[in-house]
Predict the structure.
Amino acid sequence: MRIVATSITVFLLASFLTYGLGAVGHANPAAAVLGDIATPADITRMNHVFGLDRPLLVQYFSWLGHALTGDLGTSYFTSVPVSQSVGQALPVDLSIAVLALTFAVVLGGAAGIAAALRQGGKLDRAVTLVCAGLATVPPFVIGIALIVVFSVFLKVLPSGGYVPLGTDAGQWLRFALLPALALSVEGAAAIARQLRTSLVAAVKENYVTGAVARGLPARRVLFGHVLRNAAGPALTVVGLEIPNLIGGAVVAEKIFNLPGVAQLALQSGSQHDIPLIQGTLLVTIGVVLVSNIAVNLVLLRLTPQARRPAGAAV
Amino acid sequence: MRTLRRAWRLPSAKVSLAVIGLVAVLAVFGGAIAPFDPLKQDPSLVLQGPGGRHLLGTDYLGRDVLSRLIEGTGRSVVGALEAVGVGLALGVLPGLASLWCGRVFEWVVSRLADAFMTLPYIVFAVAVTGVLGNTLTTAMVAIGVILAPRFFRIARAAGLGLTRAQYVEAAELFGASRWWILRTHIWSKVLPTLAVTAAQAMAAALLAVSSLAFLGLGVQPPAPTWGGLLSGDLQYLSQQPWAPLAPGLLIMVAAGALNTLADAIRDSGATDLLPGGGEFAAADSADASDGDVSADQPEAKENIHVPVPAL
């Protein structure tokens, strides 16, 4: 599988960059942990405890080896295993990102199909205009706007806080709804635009004329023929949106005060807690790559012609 | 310049250039224009509504919002410029070089670009500022590194079509050096496409600066920025629900103008000079208005497995 091979290469490179970033930092963790009263001998001893006196490549491979078995090291400050901190924070982001992705696909898909069906009409122009406008709105502005409307004026949804999905699904939805909506807007706009463009192009194809001429019902032509062919590029856009969703989740967490990976990253960043920084970054990269492989597998199932170049290029 | 003159014929370009000019004036002369000292606190005038002496009201410390908005422009624009500059420097040259410097170099640089593309920019910037220190330049270099693969792809795709053009082959046959070909034949034709990407990247970078400032990264609190203003408003939403409107609108208008300019340059036909370049510029960017991710382009196929951060 070419996709998997490429992803592994990219993962190795990205993880090395992640590790290298921590290594080139001027921050001296031993000095930071021990405080101002540490003697140089203390710092050397602490560096040995952290394993920072070994060559960079040795450190990297030992770190990566441990990381792949689920051990991301220990925080320099709290001595809590990094994997435990990340493991607590990740489900928050994942559950909200999945909800946001669902919103984006449903809203964007509906808007894109509707616009393409009424191509050139009022609805089409409205959708195009709204999508172009939304593309320039930063997600945090949307988040603030949602708080103003739903929490300040309507007082129907909380402006921040979180309950895990496993604890109480109904409460979780109350807290997750606004962040997920704020995150989904940008993706929904991108999906709607792409789907509209490729649908409009697909409707002009010969097989559509053929299907209509054979007397197939319009609904079946749309969902069986046109959408199946036009969905490929839109799905690629979904793949492109995934890093955005995860990046956007950082800001959403700050606005809605969610205990997610981003709060962890921000907190570890302000403390120069390098194992925690590296751990969050590595897990994020892993999530992006895995979801990317998933999107590509769906793409392969959906459009047979996408299979050819992947096989031919090896 | 010729590109801008062509684009100038479109009305949308005139409007967007006027907006960009206005933002530039605010960025350069902001300190002189601002009616009040943006850092001066007035405890007797806390959270005032718009009107009177303070046109946009005052914030939770009694500071003039309009002055803070104007003063913050410079910092936001400089940050975005830094990021785009780093992205151009790290992206364009390797992109063009990858066409000539052999397969090994090409493979390594392309995989590096893929690797950087998987990183969500905010998480990366948080990590970089966490390790290297929380300054505007550090944060913006991080954003620039994430932008670089975009420029790399565009420059590479644009150059790829040109290396097969007949006049380039002819020049090679006549013994022209690579550097000379790059300068005379390739550069001038890649430039309009790069301008489109740079305008889009600038819009993305402005949003990135604002997002990071919102998180408290890159700029330390008392200094005003667009994003910082918004995060300050967040705690007082119940008292002043309209407060985020002004900074939010300013960010949107500035980013919107840049995106409109990018569309105008493309619509003016400047990128058509390039064999397939214009289409690729659209295909590579998820925020292009007619961003048709064409599966028939060889480069698009090669790239289909990697996410392009639209930032």
